[in-house]
Amino acid sequence: TGAVTYDAGFVNTASCKSAITFIDGDEGILRYRGYPIDQLAEKASFLEVSYLLIYGELPTAAQLDEFSTRVKHHTMLHEELRRFFDGFPRDAHPMPVLSSAVSALSTFYQDALNPFDDEQVEMATVRLLAKVPTIASYAYKKSIGQPMLYPDNSLGYVANFLRMTFGVPATPYEVDPVVEKVLDMLFVLHADHEQNCSTSTVRLVGSSHANLFASVSAGVNALFGPLHGGANQAVLEMLQGIHKGDDTVESFVRKVKDKEPGVKLMGFGHRVYKNYDPRAAIVKKAAQDVMSRMNASDPLLDLAMQLEEIALADDYFVSRKLYPNVDFYTGLIYKAMGFPTKMFTVLFALGRLPGWIAQWREMIKDEDTKIGRPRQVYTGQAERTFVAMGER
Ligand code: CMC
Questions:
Q1: Residue range 373-382, pLDDT digits in tens
Q2: How many other C-beta atoms lie within 10 A of the C-beta of residue 129?
Q3: Which CATH architecture has domain 9-225+345-365?
Q4: Domain segments of the chain as ranges
Q5: Position 184 confidence tier, pLDDT thresholds 50, 70, 90
Q6: The CATH number of the domain covering residues in 231-337
Q7: pLDDT of residue 138
């Protein structure tokens, strides 16, 4: 079968062609379908960006309206699916609850499982966009013992999610427009990032012709890891540890540089960016704005800025081109909005959802797609003869 190239972690291997997202890691450039991320973050809504990623062009007002109405039509969860939440332990992390519920969508929507039927793929697309925020808020309500709220489709996508998460029955819930706008913008920043670990997982699972729900559920599980989406939770826990006095900023940085097992500067470094992550620059500014506009102050924000300043002046980080990534400042905003630490990675999943869907759809339509099946470099025993049990 010819020579095999060894590339652990696919550092140099392109697994596909894609027309969705462009990154120039040296220049710190990120574009969705050609549009720079800063323009989209400032001017476009999350549903608009979802449409752009999935269908390739910005929607007209009529197209966006139609898309948004279709999504709203599917925001409720099947009552039987709602009961799934009863079975999880109360202290369960919401990420595996989310991936389990997304996986279960394949059992409820058997009319949307055929990857080669465009209408079915469209149904699965709309159902996922509609139901994942409901699932996410139910996972949260379960963890705090509050009743789950049905969606309110008079609200926008993000406002509805905020109400389902923070609202309680029989009490009007006022969506804070600052929180709504900033969360929408954060979802835009997370919406796609080409062939990252979870997206590659979604494509790999889909390459076996597994359905969209199954593929996205696998993506959620890949995102859970602390080197990927789980980093936003890990950053906050790192800052809390320093704040509690487990370490000073200096002693913590020393441990990182000494490569103590398991100690990294979480929220720093990136496989592709060897320059400031353009998303992190936008998030840092938003964190400062949100804190001042919500009249919140957080000593953890000062700690984060101190860590960044020290790291960016330290040869260890400079020589390795380690800069803050998107996860470094997001947790501080989520915290100021009232989300518990455990929900941070779920928020990343809500944002990344349209990217997973767009990439899966591109994969299934690409005639070059083959089942993902990497090779290996075998390092085990050469052939040897079986030894009978009594002779071992
Ligand atoms: N703290 C300390 N050292 C680091 C860090 C860090 N955060 N990141 C990389 N390094 C060092 C690493 O030890 C290695 O040093 P050496 O050359 O001496 O062996 C060098 O920098 C190159 O790093 P690498 O591990 O080969 O890089 P990678 O491309 O395999 O890993 C990464 C990328 C993001 C997994 C890694 O930078 C990391 O673990 N960062 C912390 C976790 C994190 O913030 N993840 C979020 C990524 S961004 C968005 C997302 O996916 O959520």
A1: 999 999 999 9
A2: 25
A3: Orthogonal Bundle (1.10)
A4: 9-225+345-365, 231-337
A5: very high
A6: 1.10.230.10
A7: 96
pLDDT at 290: 86
Q: What pTM did the predictor assign?
A: 0.96
Sign of CA dihedral 66, 125, 128, 184: negative
**Catalytic hit among 270, 298, 315, 366:** 270
Query: pLDDT digit string (tens) for 124-153?
Result: 999 999 999 999 999 999 999 999 999 999
Q: Which residues pair with 50 in a beta bridge?
A: none
CB distance 196 to ligand 1 below 6 Å: yes
Q: Which of 202, 237, 271 to mutate to test the pocket of ligand 1 (most atoms within 8 A of CB)?
A: 271
- What is the signed CA dihedral for 37, 39, 45, 47, rounded to 10 degrees? -50
Position 1 scores a pLDDT of 54
Q: How far apart are the first and last CA of the chain?
A: 36
Q: Measured from the CB, is residue 267 less than 6 Å from ligand 1?
A: yes
Strands 35-36 and 29-32: antiparallel
CB atoms within 10 A of CB 283: 28
For residue 389, CA distances in Å to 59, 382, 386, 392 come to 68, 20, 9, 6
Measured distance CA(296)–CA(284) in Å, rounded: 15
